[in-house]
């Protein structure tokens, strides 16, 4: 994929999609790949995409027109050497451009691969002098390739830029000639008596010298436009940001266009583009304005890092010459406007005089005039009424729009005032609540302080052994205890559930009930674990041997011989045995 990088000379008027913008590689540790794109950079990229789309559409249209022309020539079997040669030349240009683009993409891919290979080597390289030396060599090779590629493409870029400027100049001259021809055709007098009368009256009023002077002014303005384009346009090929920064620094030192036009150029600074630095330094020591210019250029050399000091000084001289040309152009245009205003006033005066003359004439003479003039007056009146009606309608629409806008503004103001009022009331309410809380807290503190002071003054009040105090506390405690007991009893009655039926006794063989007194209680009998604690170590070993001989494990766990990886133990070694069955549950069964 073809990648584009910004170039400082991007504002030159050329096709951006046919040229690869390159830039000299600069090692920088402050800027990273995660730097956000600014608003102007984003706008510039969007413009590039827009221009590329437009140029693609134009190329498609040109290709379609060319193919249609060739097909029409083939159908008509006309021999046209110039058309065929032109089509062949255009096809050759397209093929060469495609070949250059493909070659350029291959070179970019080669440089990218070498850079990626060097980067991968750098990541996988170890701390070894040989590896570091090889890595340095690869980095130098990569930088040399990038620099050579940049230099080659910059030369091609300059060549294409110069060709495009010359082509645009020729196209502009051709378009101006076309405009002159169209104006000349539209100004040709039409057949008709009224038109002949008007042209005759105008030719009688205007002198030949005024017309020649007006044409001379137009020619001078066009010549000034061409001269401005010859001196490298309106920015000398600089970038928008750089030129704006240059003008901003000049304004900081109070070097606006008026000051430079009125004082610097008037004092005779040389504005040639090949002027040397000594010319400026000689003027710098003469006036305070010159010192300001010198300081401004020094600051420009520091701020505009992509331009050298000589380039900035040359740009300043170009800017002075550009201001001269623009000032001259403005003067010519203002003088041309003055001539047009005089011409308009003269025409209006003639029309008024003619209308007054017609009004003063008798009716018979007026009726004898040409019918075409009356028809023309009727048409003019109709057009005037139509224009007045349109203007009235537009004024009505403007008034309605203003009224709607005022109503919207008033509604918005009311809503804002309502919100502000609600917010103020809410804040006032919060403030009053806080203030009330503070007052209550202060009152409580004061009451506590007064109570403590009274207790200190009269110790009988705080004596717990006083009869009245004890009696009151005793009565309150009894009352609260009774209330709590009643509450607990009520809660227990609510939570009490109905008990299940007691189990029935098992009838013996002699058909008489065994009472609870006849059943021997085993509740106090010792458990097996407690009995085991009374045995000695020898007795425990004998018991374990007896279990092994009697195969107690196989009886408790069947098929134990088939599971050799499982450690099986009987319940005899467990120190905690289940408790014995209570006596009241023995020999019982549920009904």
UniProtKB/TrEMBL annotation:
Annotated region described as Disordered, given as residue ranges: 447-466
Protein origin, superkingdom: Eukaryota
Bias (Basic and acidic residues) ranges: 447-458
Keyword field: Coiled coil
Listed InterPro entries: CCDC148/CCDC112
Entry protein name: Uncharacterized protein
Organism for this UniProt entry: Albugo candida
């Amino acid at each position: 994929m073809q990648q584009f990088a910004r170039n400082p000379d991007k504002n030159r008027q050329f096709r951006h999609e046919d040229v690869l913008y390159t830039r000299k590689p600069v090692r920088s540790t402050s800027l990273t790949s995660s730097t956000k794109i600014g608003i102007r950079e984003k706008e510039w990229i969007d413009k590039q995409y827009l221009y590329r789309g437009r140029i693609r559409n134009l190329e498609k249209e040109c290709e379609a027109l060319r193919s249609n022309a060739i097909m029409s020539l083939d159908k008509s079997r006309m021999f046209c050497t110039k058309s065929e040669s032109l089509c062949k030349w255009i096809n050759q240009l397209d093929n060469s451009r495609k070949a250059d683009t493909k070659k350029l993409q291959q070179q970019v891919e080669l440089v990218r691969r070498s850079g990626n290979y060097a980067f991968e080597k750098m990541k996988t390289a170890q701390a070894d002098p040989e590896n570091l030396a090889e890595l340095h060599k690869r980095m130098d090779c990569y930088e040399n390739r990038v620099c050579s590629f940049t230099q080659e493409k910059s030369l091609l870029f300059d060549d294409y830029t110069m060709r495009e400027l010359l082509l645009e100049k020729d196209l502009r001259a051709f378009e101006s000639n076309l405009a002159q021809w169209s104006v000349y055709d539209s100004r040709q007098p039409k057949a008709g008596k009224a038109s002949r009368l008007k042209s005759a009256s105008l030719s009688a009023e205007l002198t030949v010298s005024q017309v020649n002077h007006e044409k001379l002014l137009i020619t001078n303005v066009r010549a000034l436009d061409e001269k401005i384009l010859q001196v490298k346009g309106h920015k000398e090929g600089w970038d928008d940001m750089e030129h704006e920064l240059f003008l901003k620094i000049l304004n900081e030192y109070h070097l606006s266009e008026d000051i430079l036009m009125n004082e610097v150029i008037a004092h005779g600074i040389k504005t040639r583009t090949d002027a040397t630095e000594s010319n400026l330094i000689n003027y710098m020591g003469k006036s305070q304005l010159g010192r300001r210019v010198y300081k401004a250029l020094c600051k420009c050399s520091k701020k505009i890092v992509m331009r050298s000091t000589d380039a900035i000084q040359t740009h300043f001289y170009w800017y002075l010459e550009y201001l001269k040309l623009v000032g001259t152009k403005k003067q010519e245009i203002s003088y041309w406007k003055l001539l047009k205003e005089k011409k308009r006033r003269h025409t209006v005066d003639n029309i008024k005089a003619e209308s007054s003359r017609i009004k003063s004439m008798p009716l018979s003479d007026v009726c004898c005039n040409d019918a075409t003039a009356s028809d023309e007056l009727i048409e003019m009146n109709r057009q005037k009424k139509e224009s007045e009606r349109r203007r009235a309608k537009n004024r009505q629409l403007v008034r309605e729009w203003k009224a709607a806008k005022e109503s919207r503004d008033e509604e918005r103001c009311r809503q804002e005032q309502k919100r502000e009022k609600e917010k103020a009331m809410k804040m006032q309410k919060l403030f009053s609540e806080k203030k009330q809380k503070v007052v209550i807290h202060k009152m409580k503190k004061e009451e506590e302080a007064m109570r403590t002071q009274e207790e200190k003054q009269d110790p009988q009040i705080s004596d717990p052994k006083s009869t009245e105090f004890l009696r009151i506390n005793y009565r309150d405690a009894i009352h609260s205890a009774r209330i709590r007991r009643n509450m607990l009893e009520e809660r227990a009655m609510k939570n009490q559930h109905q008990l299940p039926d007691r189990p029935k006794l098992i009838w013996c063989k002699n058909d008489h009930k065994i009472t609870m007194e006849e059943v021997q209680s085993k509740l106090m009998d010792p458990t097996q674990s407690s009995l085991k604690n009374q045995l000695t170590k020898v007795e425990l070993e004998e018991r374990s041997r007896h279990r092994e001989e009697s195969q107690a494990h196989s009886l408790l766990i069947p098929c134990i011989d088939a599971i050799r990886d499982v450690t099986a133990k009987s319940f005899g070694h467990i120190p905690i045995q289940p408790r014995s069955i209570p006596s009241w549950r023995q020999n019982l069964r549920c009904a």
